[in-house]
Amino acid sequence: MYAGEVDRTGVMIVAGQTYTINQSAYGRVENVQASDGETSQGVSISWNLKEDATSYKIYRSEFDDVETAVVLVSTAGNFYTDTTVLLGHIYYYWVRPVNAGGICGFGLSDSGFIKIAVSQDWKDLHYPAGYPVDDSDTDGDGFTAIEEYIAGTIPTNGASFFKIQMQKGAGDWLDFTVDMALEQRVYAVHWKNTLEAADWVQQGDGVVGTNGPLTISIQSDGASGFFMQRVYPEPQ
After folding, report:
1. Do 129 and 208 reside in the same domain of the chain?
2. CATH, residue 95
3. Pseudo-torsion of CA 109, 110, 111, 116, nearest 10°?
4. Can you give the residue range of the structural domain that contains 36?
5. Are 101 and 146 members of one domain?
């Protein structure tokens, strides 16, 4: 067995005799999973163990492209926590198994990111009697405490939640406006042609708030679809 991705066959001639050699491919690891905001301490990566693997090399990139991936660590187990990640960044991970025959190729990636930690000052301001949990919706407006912290809205006021306005600009431009865009927050517009599409695609660069109104203009090029405005902490 060799550390390849497909079985292979070769021919060897010894003392005038021809021998056919069949080698089974070792293959890639399966079920690579990276955590999505489960903790503020790091991104946890896990995968299925492979028989006869002596170690695993974990690769990381901020792009879903193996050409940009670099080795993060080598480990013997099937679990690792990446504590070198930064807030506001999304990371892609690959795991390559190593055995006596060498190292196998890249398999499928999975993305992960760290959880945003709510500041104690914000907790004390809005919940003097004690902070509930991040997923609580104490004012019944449909947004959780952590979402209101990110958006800069008041979590105990049902009329205070993240609002945007969209209107048609000149030509095929669309204007997306936020009345109060906070400092240390990034605002970005995402699009997809159908709600069934797998991923939202960001349109242009995100814009950092300045504690005032903010308008992001997007050229639609006549395409129809769905838009979403996202706010997230400025990457540190």
Report:
1. yes
2. 2.60.40.10
3. -150
4. 30-112
5. no
Give 9's strand partners: 22
Task: For residue 173, give both structure tokens.
Answer: 């431009």
Q: Are 101 and 63 in contact (CB under 8 A)?
A: no
**Are the CB atoms for 236 and 88 separated by under 8 Å?**
yes
Overall pTM > 0.70:
no
Q: Which two tokens stand for residue 137?
A: 């919706």
Cβ–Cβ < 8 Å for 229, 164: yes
Q: Are 184 and 191 in contact (CB under 8 A)?
A: no
Two structure tokens written together for 174: 């669309």
pLDDT in tens, 133-163: 888 999 999 999 988 998 889 999 999 988 8
pLDDT-derived band at 1, boundaries 50, 70, 90: very low
Contact 184, 234 (CB under 8 A): yes
Q: Above 80 in pLDDT, residue 13?
A: no
